[in-house]
Request: fold
Amino acid sequence: MVQNIIDVRNLSKSFDISSKEQGLKGTIKHFFRRQTKSLKVIKDISFEIKEGEIVGFLGANGAGKTTILKMLCGLIYPSEGSILVSGYLPFRRKENFLKNITLIMGQKQQLIWDLPPIESFYLNASIYDLDKFEAKKRIKKLSEMLEIDEELFIPVRKLSLGQRMKSELLAALIHEPNILFLDEPTLGLDINAQRNLRKFLQKYNKETNATICLTSHYMKDITSLCKRVICVHDGTISYDGKLDLLLKKLSPVKEILIVCRSVEDAIKLENSGFTVKNKIKNEITIIVENNSTTSSLKTILNNFDIEDLYINEPPIDEIIGKILIKKDYGI
Amino acid sequence: MVSNLIKNKISTLLKVQYSTMMEYRVEIALWAISGIIPFFMLNIWTNNNLNESINISNIMLSRYFLCAFFVRQFSVVWVVFSFEEDSLLGKVSPYLIQPLNPFFRYFAQHLAEQITRFPFALVIAFFFFIFNPESIWIPNLGSLFLGIISTFLSFLIQFLIQSIIACLCFWTEKASSIERLLFIPTLFLSGLLAPVVSFPEYVKSWIYLTPFPYLIDFPANLLSGNPINVIGGFIMQILWIILFFPLFRKIWTTGTKKYTAMGS
Reply:
Protein backbone atom coordinates (compact mmCIF):
# COMPACT_ATOMS: atom_id res chain seq x y z
CA MET A 1 0.00 0.00 0.00
CA VAL A 2 1.32 3.42 -0.96
CA GLN A 3 1.86 5.64 2.06
CA ASN A 4 0.84 9.24 2.50
CA ILE A 5 3.90 11.44 2.25
CA ILE A 6 2.04 14.69 2.85
CA ASP A 7 -0.69 14.99 5.44
CA VAL A 8 -2.44 18.33 5.94
CA ARG A 9 -5.13 18.79 8.58
CA ASN A 10 -7.29 21.88 9.13
CA LEU A 11 -4.59 24.19 7.84
CA SER A 12 -5.13 27.96 7.93
CA LYS A 13 -2.90 30.93 7.29
CA SER A 14 -3.54 34.58 8.03
CA PHE A 15 -1.46 37.60 7.06
CA ASP A 16 -1.55 41.08 8.54
CA ILE A 17 -2.24 43.50 5.72
CA SER A 18 -2.06 47.28 6.03
CA SER A 19 -4.39 49.36 3.92
CA LYS A 20 -4.08 52.98 2.80
CA GLU A 21 -6.68 55.36 1.46
CA GLN A 22 -5.98 57.12 -1.83
CA GLY A 23 -4.54 60.65 -1.96
CA LEU A 24 -2.56 62.99 0.30
CA LYS A 25 -5.07 62.75 3.14
CA GLY A 26 -4.83 58.98 3.03
CA THR A 27 -1.03 59.18 3.02
CA ILE A 28 -0.93 61.44 6.09
CA LYS A 29 -3.49 59.30 7.89
CA HIS A 30 -1.49 56.21 6.99
CA PHE A 31 1.69 57.84 8.37
CA PHE A 32 0.20 58.61 11.78
CA ARG A 33 -2.22 55.75 12.18
CA ARG A 34 -1.58 52.58 10.29
CA GLN A 35 -4.60 50.43 9.74
CA THR A 36 -3.87 46.76 9.58
CA LYS A 37 -6.24 43.90 9.28
CA SER A 38 -5.77 40.19 9.46
CA LEU A 39 -6.52 38.48 6.18
CA LYS A 40 -7.18 34.75 6.23
CA VAL A 41 -5.76 33.48 2.95
CA ILE A 42 -5.99 29.74 3.67
CA LYS A 43 -9.09 28.52 5.42
CA ASP A 44 -9.19 25.21 7.21
CA ILE A 45 -8.02 22.91 4.43
CA SER A 46 -7.19 19.21 4.69
CA PHE A 47 -5.73 16.77 2.16
CA GLU A 48 -3.24 13.94 1.79
CA ILE A 49 -0.77 13.20 -0.98
CA LYS A 50 0.67 9.75 -1.58
CA GLU A 51 4.26 8.95 -2.32
CA GLY A 52 5.04 9.22 -6.04
CA GLU A 53 1.88 11.20 -6.87
CA ILE A 54 1.96 14.26 -9.11
CA VAL A 55 -0.67 16.69 -7.89
CA GLY A 56 -1.61 19.94 -9.58
CA PHE A 57 -2.88 22.88 -7.57
CA LEU A 58 -5.32 24.92 -9.62
CA GLY A 59 -6.80 28.29 -8.81
CA ALA A 60 -7.01 31.91 -9.85
CA ASN A 61 -4.31 34.43 -8.91
CA GLY A 62 -4.44 35.03 -5.16
CA ALA A 63 -6.47 31.89 -4.48
CA GLY A 64 -3.77 30.59 -2.11
CA LYS A 65 -1.95 27.91 -4.16
CA THR A 66 1.53 29.34 -3.63
CA THR A 67 0.87 29.96 0.07
CA ILE A 68 -0.01 26.27 0.45
CA LEU A 69 3.23 25.24 -1.28
CA LYS A 70 5.23 27.64 0.88
CA MET A 71 3.76 26.10 4.02
CA LEU A 72 4.35 22.57 2.76
CA CYS A 73 8.02 23.23 2.19
CA GLY A 74 8.46 25.04 5.51
CA LEU A 75 9.07 28.49 4.14
CA ILE A 76 6.22 30.09 6.04
CA TYR A 77 4.66 29.23 9.34
CA PRO A 78 1.03 28.05 9.43
CA SER A 79 -1.38 30.02 11.61
CA GLU A 80 -3.51 27.00 12.51
CA GLY A 81 -3.65 23.29 11.77
CA SER A 82 -0.99 20.71 11.17
CA ILE A 83 1.26 19.65 8.30
CA LEU A 84 3.37 16.51 8.14
CA VAL A 85 5.67 16.12 5.18
CA SER A 86 7.68 12.93 5.03
CA GLY A 87 7.09 12.59 8.77
CA TYR A 88 8.48 16.06 9.58
CA LEU A 89 6.88 19.32 10.65
CA PRO A 90 8.10 21.44 7.71
CA PHE A 91 8.53 24.70 9.58
CA ARG A 92 11.07 23.21 11.96
CA ARG A 93 13.29 22.92 8.88
CA LYS A 94 15.26 19.95 10.18
CA GLU A 95 18.31 19.13 8.11
CA ASN A 96 17.00 15.71 7.07
CA PHE A 97 13.70 17.24 5.97
CA LEU A 98 15.43 19.95 3.92
CA LYS A 99 17.62 17.34 2.25
CA ASN A 100 14.44 15.57 1.16
CA ILE A 101 12.65 18.44 -0.54
CA THR A 102 13.13 21.17 -3.08
CA LEU A 103 11.18 24.25 -4.11
CA ILE A 104 11.37 25.72 -7.57
CA MET A 105 9.73 29.04 -8.24
CA GLY A 106 9.40 30.01 -11.85
CA GLN A 107 9.81 33.69 -11.13
CA LYS A 108 12.69 33.38 -8.65
CA GLN A 109 16.15 32.06 -9.10
CA GLN A 110 18.77 30.67 -6.83
CA LEU A 111 21.63 30.53 -9.35
CA ILE A 112 24.43 33.05 -8.85
CA TRP A 113 23.76 35.63 -11.53
CA ASP A 114 27.34 36.50 -12.46
CA LEU A 115 28.83 33.02 -12.49
CA PRO A 116 28.28 30.00 -14.72
CA PRO A 117 25.65 27.55 -13.36
CA ILE A 118 28.32 24.92 -12.69
CA GLU A 119 29.58 27.06 -9.76
CA SER A 120 26.11 27.13 -8.20
CA PHE A 121 25.79 23.36 -8.68
CA TYR A 122 29.00 22.64 -6.79
CA LEU A 123 28.00 25.14 -4.11
CA ASN A 124 24.65 23.42 -3.66
CA ALA A 125 26.35 20.04 -3.68
CA SER A 126 28.57 21.13 -0.80
CA ILE A 127 25.59 22.60 1.08
CA TYR A 128 23.89 19.20 0.81
CA ASP A 129 27.07 17.44 1.96
CA LEU A 130 27.83 15.73 -1.33
CA ASP A 131 31.48 15.03 -2.03
CA LYS A 132 32.98 16.22 -5.30
CA PHE A 133 32.91 12.80 -6.94
CA GLU A 134 29.19 12.30 -6.17
CA ALA A 135 28.40 15.88 -7.22
CA LYS A 136 30.15 15.39 -10.56
CA LYS A 137 28.24 12.15 -11.16
CA ARG A 138 24.88 13.77 -10.42
CA ILE A 139 25.60 16.88 -12.49
CA LYS A 140 26.48 14.62 -15.43
CA LYS A 141 23.34 12.53 -15.02
CA LEU A 142 20.97 15.48 -14.62
CA SER A 143 22.56 17.53 -17.39
CA GLU A 144 22.06 14.59 -19.74
CA MET A 145 18.43 14.26 -18.67
CA LEU A 146 17.91 18.00 -19.12
CA GLU A 147 19.97 18.12 -22.31
CA ILE A 148 22.27 20.91 -21.21
CA ASP A 149 26.00 20.90 -21.71
CA GLU A 150 27.84 24.03 -22.85
CA GLU A 151 25.39 26.22 -20.94
CA LEU A 152 26.90 24.96 -17.70
CA PHE A 153 29.97 27.10 -18.29
CA ILE A 154 28.31 30.32 -19.45
CA PRO A 155 27.47 33.04 -16.87
CA VAL A 156 23.82 32.79 -15.82
CA ARG A 157 23.08 36.36 -16.92
CA LYS A 158 23.94 35.38 -20.51
CA LEU A 159 21.64 32.33 -20.65
CA SER A 160 18.19 32.31 -22.22
CA LEU A 161 15.18 31.87 -19.93
CA GLY A 162 14.79 28.23 -20.99
CA GLN A 163 18.46 27.43 -20.40
CA ARG A 164 18.30 29.22 -17.07
CA MET A 165 15.23 27.26 -15.99
CA LYS A 166 16.91 23.97 -16.86
CA SER A 167 19.93 25.05 -14.81
CA GLU A 168 17.63 26.07 -11.95
CA LEU A 169 16.12 22.60 -12.03
CA LEU A 170 19.53 20.98 -11.98
CA ALA A 171 20.60 23.15 -9.03
CA ALA A 172 17.39 22.32 -7.17
CA LEU A 173 17.61 18.58 -7.83
CA ILE A 174 21.29 17.92 -7.26
CA HIS A 175 20.55 16.48 -3.82
CA GLU A 176 17.98 14.12 -5.37
CA PRO A 177 15.00 15.20 -3.29
CA ASN A 178 11.99 12.93 -3.19
CA ILE A 179 9.45 15.74 -2.82
CA LEU A 180 9.36 18.54 -5.38
CA PHE A 181 7.37 21.72 -4.89
CA LEU A 182 7.09 23.51 -8.21
CA ASP A 183 5.51 26.93 -8.36
CA GLU A 184 4.85 27.79 -11.99
CA PRO A 185 8.02 26.15 -13.27
CA THR A 186 7.25 26.85 -16.93
CA LEU A 187 6.47 30.55 -16.48
CA GLY A 188 7.72 32.54 -19.46
CA LEU A 189 9.15 29.55 -21.33
CA ASP A 190 8.46 28.95 -25.01
CA ILE A 191 6.39 25.95 -26.10
CA ASN A 192 9.39 23.69 -26.78
CA ALA A 193 11.06 24.54 -23.50
CA GLN A 194 7.78 23.89 -21.67
CA ARG A 195 7.43 20.51 -23.34
CA ASN A 196 11.02 19.54 -22.54
CA LEU A 197 10.56 20.51 -18.92
CA ARG A 198 7.39 18.45 -18.65
CA LYS A 199 9.13 15.47 -20.25
CA PHE A 200 11.94 15.83 -17.74
CA LEU A 201 9.58 15.96 -14.78
CA GLN A 202 7.72 12.86 -16.00
CA LYS A 203 11.02 11.03 -16.38
CA TYR A 204 12.26 12.17 -12.97
CA ASN A 205 9.02 11.04 -11.34
CA LYS A 206 9.18 7.67 -13.11
CA GLU A 207 12.83 7.04 -12.26
CA THR A 208 12.83 8.22 -8.65
CA ASN A 209 9.17 7.85 -7.62
CA ALA A 210 9.39 11.45 -6.38
CA THR A 211 6.23 13.20 -5.24
CA ILE A 212 5.52 16.39 -7.16
CA CYS A 213 3.25 19.25 -6.11
CA LEU A 214 2.79 21.68 -8.94
CA THR A 215 1.07 24.98 -9.58
CA SER A 216 0.83 26.32 -13.09
CA HIS A 217 -1.29 28.59 -15.20
CA TYR A 218 -0.31 26.62 -18.31
CA MET A 219 -3.00 23.99 -18.56
CA LYS A 220 -0.82 21.73 -20.64
CA ASP A 221 1.47 21.35 -17.58
CA ILE A 222 -1.46 20.19 -15.51
CA THR A 223 -3.10 17.94 -18.08
CA SER A 224 0.09 16.19 -19.16
CA LEU A 225 1.59 15.74 -15.69
CA CYS A 226 -1.19 15.47 -13.13
CA LYS A 227 -3.79 12.76 -12.75
CA ARG A 228 -5.03 14.45 -9.59
CA VAL A 229 -5.80 18.12 -9.05
CA ILE A 230 -6.62 20.17 -6.00
CA CYS A 231 -8.65 23.26 -6.89
CA VAL A 232 -8.16 26.18 -4.54
CA HIS A 233 -10.79 28.87 -4.41
CA ASP A 234 -10.47 31.81 -2.04
CA GLY A 235 -8.32 29.83 0.39
CA THR A 236 -10.51 26.73 0.47
CA ILE A 237 -10.36 23.47 -1.45
CA SER A 238 -13.25 23.38 -3.91
CA TYR A 239 -12.28 20.10 -5.58
CA ASP A 240 -9.80 17.35 -4.82
CA GLY A 241 -9.82 14.38 -7.15
CA LYS A 242 -9.14 13.03 -10.62
CA LEU A 243 -8.62 15.60 -13.36
CA ASP A 244 -10.50 13.44 -15.91
CA LEU A 245 -13.60 13.35 -13.74
CA LEU A 246 -13.53 17.09 -13.25
CA LEU A 247 -13.15 17.75 -16.98
CA LYS A 248 -16.04 15.42 -17.85
CA LYS A 249 -18.24 17.03 -15.27
CA LEU A 250 -17.43 20.54 -16.36
CA SER A 251 -17.68 19.81 -20.04
CA PRO A 252 -20.70 17.54 -20.68
CA VAL A 253 -21.06 18.74 -24.29
CA LYS A 254 -19.31 18.60 -27.66
CA GLU A 255 -19.32 21.07 -30.52
CA ILE A 256 -20.04 19.86 -34.08
CA LEU A 257 -19.13 22.08 -36.99
CA ILE A 258 -21.24 21.16 -40.02
CA VAL A 259 -20.50 22.39 -43.52
CA CYS A 260 -23.75 22.17 -45.53
CA ARG A 261 -23.87 21.96 -49.34
CA SER A 262 -25.98 25.14 -49.50
CA VAL A 263 -27.04 28.09 -47.36
CA GLU A 264 -30.65 26.79 -47.57
CA ASP A 265 -29.59 23.49 -45.98
CA ALA A 266 -27.86 25.44 -43.20
CA ILE A 267 -31.06 27.43 -42.54
CA LYS A 268 -33.06 24.19 -42.49
CA LEU A 269 -30.61 22.70 -39.99
CA GLU A 270 -30.71 25.85 -37.86
CA ASN A 271 -34.47 25.50 -37.49
CA SER A 272 -34.49 21.77 -36.79
CA GLY A 273 -34.27 21.98 -33.00
CA PHE A 274 -30.50 21.66 -32.34
CA THR A 275 -28.73 24.12 -30.01
CA VAL A 276 -26.89 26.41 -32.42
CA LYS A 277 -23.73 28.12 -31.27
CA ASN A 278 -23.16 30.12 -34.44
CA LYS A 279 -23.85 30.15 -38.16
CA ILE A 280 -21.80 31.69 -40.97
CA LYS A 281 -23.22 31.21 -44.49
CA ASN A 282 -23.35 27.41 -45.04
CA GLU A 283 -21.30 26.59 -41.89
CA ILE A 284 -23.14 25.96 -38.67
CA THR A 285 -21.84 24.97 -35.22
CA ILE A 286 -24.18 23.04 -32.95
CA ILE A 287 -23.78 21.86 -29.36
CA VAL A 288 -24.78 18.34 -28.36
CA GLU A 289 -24.69 16.40 -25.11
CA ASN A 290 -21.80 13.91 -24.86
CA ASN A 291 -24.22 10.96 -24.55
CA SER A 292 -26.27 11.95 -27.59
CA THR A 293 -23.43 12.65 -30.04
CA THR A 294 -23.95 9.46 -32.10
CA SER A 295 -27.73 9.81 -32.40
CA SER A 296 -27.43 13.50 -33.30
CA LEU A 297 -24.88 12.71 -36.03
CA LYS A 298 -27.16 10.00 -37.43
CA THR A 299 -30.09 12.43 -37.62
CA ILE A 300 -27.98 15.09 -39.34
CA LEU A 301 -26.45 12.71 -41.91
CA ASN A 302 -29.85 11.17 -42.74
CA ASN A 303 -31.82 14.39 -43.07
CA PHE A 304 -29.44 17.02 -44.45
CA ASP A 305 -27.12 17.39 -47.40
CA ILE A 306 -23.74 17.64 -45.66
CA GLU A 307 -20.41 18.43 -47.31
CA ASP A 308 -18.17 17.96 -44.25
CA LEU A 309 -18.26 17.92 -40.43
CA TYR A 310 -15.87 18.25 -37.49
CA ILE A 311 -16.37 17.20 -33.86
CA ASN A 312 -14.57 19.38 -31.32
CA GLU A 313 -14.00 19.00 -27.57
CA PRO A 314 -14.27 22.41 -25.88
CA PRO A 315 -10.79 23.87 -25.36
CA ILE A 316 -9.25 22.72 -22.10
CA ASP A 317 -8.34 26.32 -21.17
CA GLU A 318 -12.02 27.21 -21.34
CA ILE A 319 -12.94 24.42 -18.94
CA ILE A 320 -10.15 25.22 -16.54
CA GLY A 321 -11.20 28.85 -16.75
CA LYS A 322 -14.51 27.75 -15.26
CA ILE A 323 -12.65 26.04 -12.42
CA LEU A 324 -10.87 29.26 -11.52
CA ILE A 325 -14.08 31.18 -11.02
CA LYS A 326 -16.34 28.46 -9.65
CA LYS A 327 -16.47 27.38 -6.05
CA ASP A 328 -18.76 24.41 -6.44
CA TYR A 329 -18.57 21.97 -9.35
CA GLY A 330 -21.45 19.78 -8.22
CA ILE A 331 -19.22 16.72 -7.92
CA MET B 1 34.80 12.45 7.32
CA VAL B 2 32.53 15.01 9.01
CA SER B 3 35.29 17.60 9.22
CA ASN B 4 36.07 16.99 5.55
CA LEU B 5 32.47 17.75 4.60
CA ILE B 6 32.45 20.92 6.73
CA LYS B 7 35.77 21.93 5.19
CA ASN B 8 34.32 21.24 1.75
CA LYS B 9 31.23 23.36 2.54
CA ILE B 10 33.24 26.32 3.83
CA SER B 11 35.93 26.23 1.16
CA THR B 12 33.37 25.91 -1.68
CA LEU B 13 31.31 28.76 -0.25
CA LEU B 14 34.40 30.96 -0.01
CA LYS B 15 35.65 30.02 -3.48
CA VAL B 16 32.28 30.74 -5.09
CA GLN B 17 31.87 34.04 -3.26
CA TYR B 18 35.44 35.02 -4.18
CA SER B 19 34.70 34.28 -7.84
CA THR B 20 31.59 36.48 -7.59
CA MET B 21 33.57 39.29 -5.98
CA MET B 22 36.19 39.11 -8.71
CA GLU B 23 33.43 39.99 -11.17
CA TYR B 24 33.09 43.29 -9.28
CA ARG B 25 36.77 44.19 -8.86
CA VAL B 26 36.39 47.78 -10.05
CA GLU B 27 33.53 48.34 -7.62
CA ILE B 28 35.64 46.89 -4.81
CA ALA B 29 38.57 49.14 -5.72
CA LEU B 30 36.23 52.13 -5.51
CA TRP B 31 34.90 50.95 -2.16
CA ALA B 32 38.49 50.64 -0.90
CA ILE B 33 39.27 54.18 -2.05
CA SER B 34 36.09 55.48 -0.45
CA GLY B 35 37.40 54.28 2.91
CA ILE B 36 40.16 56.87 3.16
CA ILE B 37 38.33 58.99 5.72
CA PRO B 38 41.07 58.28 8.37
CA PHE B 39 43.60 60.02 6.11
CA PHE B 40 41.46 63.18 5.98
CA MET B 41 41.21 63.04 9.76
CA LEU B 42 44.96 62.64 10.03
CA ASN B 43 45.38 65.78 7.95
CA ILE B 44 43.02 67.74 10.21
CA TRP B 45 44.76 66.50 13.35
CA THR B 46 48.32 67.20 12.25
CA ASN B 47 47.63 70.55 10.54
CA ASN B 48 45.98 71.85 13.70
CA ASN B 49 48.56 70.29 16.05
CA LEU B 50 45.69 68.61 17.91
CA ASN B 51 47.92 65.63 18.70
CA GLU B 52 49.91 67.73 21.17
CA SER B 53 46.93 67.87 23.53
CA ILE B 54 46.91 64.06 23.86
CA ASN B 55 50.68 63.52 23.88
CA ILE B 56 50.84 61.48 20.68
CA SER B 57 53.60 62.21 18.20
CA ASN B 58 52.83 63.01 14.59
CA ILE B 59 54.38 59.73 13.50
CA MET B 60 52.41 57.62 15.94
CA LEU B 61 49.23 59.45 14.99
CA SER B 62 49.77 58.86 11.26
CA ARG B 63 50.45 55.16 11.97
CA TYR B 64 47.26 55.04 14.03
CA PHE B 65 45.16 56.46 11.20
CA LEU B 66 46.79 54.17 8.64
CA CYS B 67 45.96 51.20 10.87
CA ALA B 68 42.44 52.56 11.39
CA PHE B 69 42.13 52.60 7.60
CA PHE B 70 43.24 48.95 7.42
CA VAL B 71 40.98 47.85 10.28
CA ARG B 72 38.03 49.57 8.62
CA GLN B 73 38.84 47.93 5.29
CA PHE B 74 38.72 44.48 6.85
CA SER B 75 35.84 44.93 9.23
CA VAL B 76 33.32 46.84 7.14
CA VAL B 77 29.93 45.08 7.09
CA TRP B 78 26.88 45.59 4.89
CA VAL B 79 24.88 42.45 5.65
CA VAL B 80 21.81 44.46 6.70
CA PHE B 81 21.54 46.00 3.23
CA SER B 82 22.07 42.69 1.41
CA PHE B 83 19.60 40.84 3.61
CA GLU B 84 17.01 43.61 3.40
CA GLU B 85 17.16 43.60 -0.39
CA ASP B 86 17.07 39.80 -0.61
CA SER B 87 14.22 39.66 1.86
CA LEU B 88 12.13 42.29 0.06
CA LEU B 89 12.68 40.65 -3.33
CA GLY B 90 12.01 37.16 -2.02
CA LYS B 91 15.55 35.99 -2.75
CA VAL B 92 15.92 34.66 0.79
CA SER B 93 13.25 32.01 0.15
CA PRO B 94 15.43 29.47 -1.71
CA TYR B 95 18.18 29.90 0.91
CA LEU B 96 15.76 29.25 3.76
CA ILE B 97 14.93 25.78 2.56
CA GLN B 98 18.56 24.74 2.26
CA PRO B 99 20.35 23.08 5.17
CA LEU B 100 22.62 26.09 5.72
CA ASN B 101 21.72 29.31 7.52
CA PRO B 102 21.61 32.08 4.88
CA PHE B 103 23.86 34.23 7.05
CA PHE B 104 26.73 31.85 6.28
CA ARG B 105 26.43 32.96 2.68
CA TYR B 106 26.63 36.62 3.68
CA PHE B 107 29.51 35.86 6.01
CA ALA B 108 31.43 34.14 3.20
CA GLN B 109 30.53 37.06 0.91
CA HIS B 110 32.15 39.50 3.35
CA LEU B 111 35.28 37.37 3.79
CA ALA B 112 35.62 36.98 0.03
CA GLU B 113 35.22 40.72 -0.40
CA GLN B 114 37.96 41.35 2.17
CA ILE B 115 40.33 39.07 0.28
CA THR B 116 39.54 40.90 -2.97
CA ARG B 117 40.01 44.25 -1.23
CA PHE B 118 43.44 43.38 0.21
CA PRO B 119 45.63 44.27 -2.81
CA PHE B 120 43.80 47.60 -3.29
CA ALA B 121 44.33 48.45 0.38
CA LEU B 122 48.04 47.68 0.00
CA VAL B 123 48.30 50.03 -2.99
CA ILE B 124 46.62 52.81 -0.98
CA ALA B 125 49.04 52.15 1.91
CA PHE B 126 51.95 52.35 -0.54
CA PHE B 127 50.85 55.81 -1.66
CA PHE B 128 50.31 56.82 1.98
CA PHE B 129 53.95 55.99 2.73
CA ILE B 130 55.13 57.90 -0.33
CA PHE B 131 53.46 61.04 1.03
CA ASN B 132 54.39 60.25 4.66
CA PRO B 133 57.81 58.54 4.45
CA GLU B 134 58.53 59.27 8.11
CA SER B 135 55.66 56.94 9.08
CA ILE B 136 57.18 53.86 7.50
CA TRP B 137 57.66 51.09 10.05
CA ILE B 138 57.61 47.34 10.26
CA PRO B 139 55.23 46.21 13.02
CA ASN B 140 56.58 43.41 15.20
CA LEU B 141 55.10 40.00 14.50
CA GLY B 142 53.36 39.79 17.88
CA SER B 143 51.39 43.02 17.51
CA LEU B 144 50.67 42.21 13.86
CA PHE B 145 49.24 38.83 14.86
CA LEU B 146 47.16 40.29 17.71
CA GLY B 147 46.06 43.17 15.50
CA ILE B 148 44.80 40.77 12.82
CA ILE B 149 42.91 38.73 15.43
CA SER B 150 41.31 41.81 16.99
CA THR B 151 40.39 43.11 13.52
CA PHE B 152 38.65 39.81 12.82
CA LEU B 153 36.87 39.99 16.19
CA SER B 154 35.84 43.56 15.35
CA PHE B 155 34.43 42.24 12.08
CA LEU B 156 32.54 39.52 13.98
CA ILE B 157 31.02 42.08 16.39
CA GLN B 158 29.89 44.31 13.53
CA PHE B 159 28.59 41.34 11.57
CA LEU B 160 26.55 40.18 14.55
CA ILE B 161 25.17 43.67 15.27
CA GLN B 162 24.11 44.11 11.66
CA SER B 163 22.73 40.57 11.45
CA ILE B 164 20.54 41.27 14.48
CA ILE B 165 19.31 44.47 12.83
CA ALA B 166 18.88 42.62 9.52
CA CYS B 167 16.58 40.10 11.24
CA LEU B 168 14.30 43.00 12.11
CA CYS B 169 13.34 42.86 8.42
CA PHE B 170 10.94 40.14 9.52
CA TRP B 171 8.98 42.80 11.44
CA THR B 172 9.76 46.02 9.57
CA GLU B 173 10.67 46.04 5.91
CA LYS B 174 13.25 48.82 6.22
CA ALA B 175 15.56 47.55 8.92
CA SER B 176 18.52 49.38 7.37
CA SER B 177 17.14 52.66 8.73
CA ILE B 178 17.81 51.30 12.23
CA GLU B 179 21.38 50.58 11.17
CA ARG B 180 21.72 54.21 10.09
CA LEU B 181 20.91 55.22 13.67
CA LEU B 182 23.96 53.26 14.77
CA PHE B 183 26.16 54.83 12.12
CA ILE B 184 26.66 58.10 14.03
CA PRO B 185 27.89 56.58 17.31
CA THR B 186 30.00 54.12 15.31
CA LEU B 187 31.59 56.99 13.40
CA PHE B 188 32.38 59.10 16.45
CA LEU B 189 33.02 56.53 19.16
CA SER B 190 34.85 53.80 17.26
CA GLY B 191 38.05 55.75 16.77
CA LEU B 192 37.60 56.34 13.06
CA LEU B 193 37.58 60.14 13.37
CA ALA B 194 39.75 60.44 16.48
CA PRO B 195 41.56 58.04 18.79
CA VAL B 196 39.34 57.34 21.79
CA VAL B 197 42.19 58.42 24.06
CA SER B 198 41.53 62.01 22.92
CA PHE B 199 38.08 62.05 24.55
CA PRO B 200 37.59 63.58 28.03
CA GLU B 201 38.11 61.13 30.89
CA TYR B 202 34.46 60.92 31.99
CA VAL B 203 33.31 60.31 28.40
CA LYS B 204 36.01 57.68 27.88
CA SER B 205 34.91 55.71 30.92
CA TRP B 206 31.46 55.34 29.34
CA ILE B 207 32.67 54.72 25.82
CA TYR B 208 34.79 51.77 26.91
CA LEU B 209 31.66 50.06 28.20
CA THR B 210 30.12 50.11 24.72
CA PRO B 211 31.21 47.90 21.80
CA PHE B 212 32.26 50.92 19.69
CA PRO B 213 35.94 51.45 20.72
CA TYR B 214 36.63 47.75 20.08
CA LEU B 215 35.64 48.13 16.44
CA ILE B 216 38.46 50.42 15.23
CA ASP B 217 40.34 52.06 18.09
CA PHE B 218 41.47 48.89 19.88
CA PRO B 219 42.70 46.93 16.83
CA ALA B 220 44.27 50.08 15.28
CA ASN B 221 46.21 50.83 18.47
CA LEU B 222 47.34 47.20 18.64
CA LEU B 223 48.58 47.25 15.05
CA SER B 224 50.30 50.63 15.31
CA GLY B 225 52.07 49.72 18.54
CA ASN B 226 50.42 52.36 20.74
CA PRO B 227 50.18 51.47 24.44
CA ILE B 228 46.85 49.77 25.14
CA ASN B 229 45.27 47.30 27.55
CA VAL B 230 45.56 44.22 25.33
CA ILE B 231 43.94 41.62 27.59
CA GLY B 232 41.11 43.98 28.63
CA GLY B 233 40.41 44.82 24.98
CA PHE B 234 40.25 41.18 23.88
CA ILE B 235 38.02 40.28 26.84
CA MET B 236 35.59 43.05 25.89
CA GLN B 237 35.56 41.97 22.23
CA ILE B 238 34.85 38.36 23.19
CA LEU B 239 32.21 39.41 25.73
CA TRP B 240 30.32 41.41 23.10
CA ILE B 241 30.42 38.44 20.73
CA ILE B 242 29.16 36.13 23.49
CA LEU B 243 26.34 38.59 24.18
CA PHE B 244 25.33 39.22 20.56
CA PHE B 245 25.48 35.65 19.24
CA PRO B 246 22.59 34.16 21.29
CA LEU B 247 20.64 37.36 20.72
CA PHE B 248 21.05 36.86 16.98
CA ARG B 249 20.00 33.18 17.25
CA LYS B 250 16.89 34.12 19.24
CA ILE B 251 15.82 36.93 16.94
CA TRP B 252 16.48 34.74 13.88
CA THR B 253 14.35 31.87 15.19
CA THR B 254 11.52 34.20 16.18
CA GLY B 255 11.79 36.24 13.00
CA THR B 256 11.65 33.35 10.54
CA LYS B 257 8.23 32.47 11.98
CA LYS B 258 7.09 35.91 10.83
CA TYR B 259 8.57 35.48 7.33
CA THR B 260 5.94 35.92 4.67
CA ALA B 261 8.15 35.14 1.65
CA MET B 262 7.32 38.48 0.12
CA GLY B 263 7.95 38.91 -3.57
CA SER B 264 8.00 35.20 -4.24
